[in-house]
Amino acid sequence: MTDSAQVARQYSSTSNLATRRGVWGPGPEGHSPADVLRDAVLAAGRGRRILEIGCGAGLFARSVLDAAPGTQYVATDLSPAMVAATAALGVPAQQASADALPFPDESFDVVVAAWMLYHVPDLDAALREVRRVLRVGGTFCVATNGERHLAELLRDAGGEPVVTQFSSENASPTLRRHFDDVTQRDIETRATFEDHDAAAAYLASFSPTLAAALPVFDGRRRYAGHASVVTAH
Ligand SMILES: C[S@@+](CC[C@H](N)C(=O)[O-])C[C@H]1O[C@@H](n2cnc3c(N)ncnc32)[C@H](O)[C@@H]1O
Questions:
Q1: Which of 23, 59, 77, 123 should be mutated for ligand 1, with most atoms under 8 A from CB?
Q2: How close is the Cα of 110 to the center of ligand 1, in Å?
């Protein structure tokens, strides 16, 4: 979804994001993509200057600062509600669009974009901005989902896989348009829904039509998710 009005509606409060975030746990290899992303961010940015774009409710930023106090972290998001939620966690936060970053050239050692580049209408403009604000030799740390992400749940509800402009399938070639050295790690994860209503609520957070079409089932269900963490220099 890149339509600006739809994106603004989707993230006008933190509730849709909170509904989706709560169901995820590690996959068969025991890793969650957010943990792999945090490790990459800490390896490149501990104690240094980090910018996050599309920070959502600020939980990732807070976890980095908890692990590495003294790091200079600036979290940004297009949504005022997300900026307010992030600031409420004690993380320096300000409103900014990924394609017009209000920072000087080469002002960060690390830039983080977690599950947000599929929403930016002009993806190359945003990647140029990231390149501009990163110092030479700095690291861009990215997470996104694959086209098979939750495909079985979507199919159970009569839907199609979600194909985006920035997915596991196209992230690396897209980043290579702007960065020389790109490394991608694909990670399987698991969503646990305690009952049908929990799965329907997840779907309703982005598609009430799919939520209404999900056949009733008894008991708990688990579905596979597919994500990737990519680093670029
Ligand atoms: C799927 S959420 C991910 C939030 C957070 N990174 C996380 O992993 O929980 C996408 C976020 O990107 C933000 N966003 C969407 N388009 C944006 C843009 N053009 N510039 C900055 N933020 C944007 C949304 O407001 C939302 O908070």
A1: 77
A2: 17
Q: Where along the chain do its domains lie? A: 4-146+177-189+227-232
pLDDT (tens digit per residue) in 41-82: 999 999 999 999 999 999 999 999 999 999 999 999 999 999
Q: Of all protein residues, whose CA lies closest to atom 12 belonging to ligand 1?
A: 54
CA distance 126 to 210: 31
Residue 131 CB contacts under 8 Å (≥ 6 apart), including other chains: 140, 178, 179
Task: For ligand 1, say whether the CB of 162 is within 6 Å of any of its atoms.
Answer: no
Q: Which CATH class is domain 4-146+177-189+227-232?
A: alpha beta
- Atom index in ligand 1 nearest the CA of residue 126 equals 19
For 192-204, write each residue's pLDDT tens digit: 999 999 999 999 9
Q: What distance in angstroms lies between residue 40's CA and the mean position of ligand 1's atoms?
A: 19
Backbone angles phi, psi at 47, to 5 degrees: 75, 5
Strands 182-193 and 24-26, bridge-based pairing: antiparallel
State the Cα–Cα distance between residues 82 and 94, nearest whole angstrom: 9
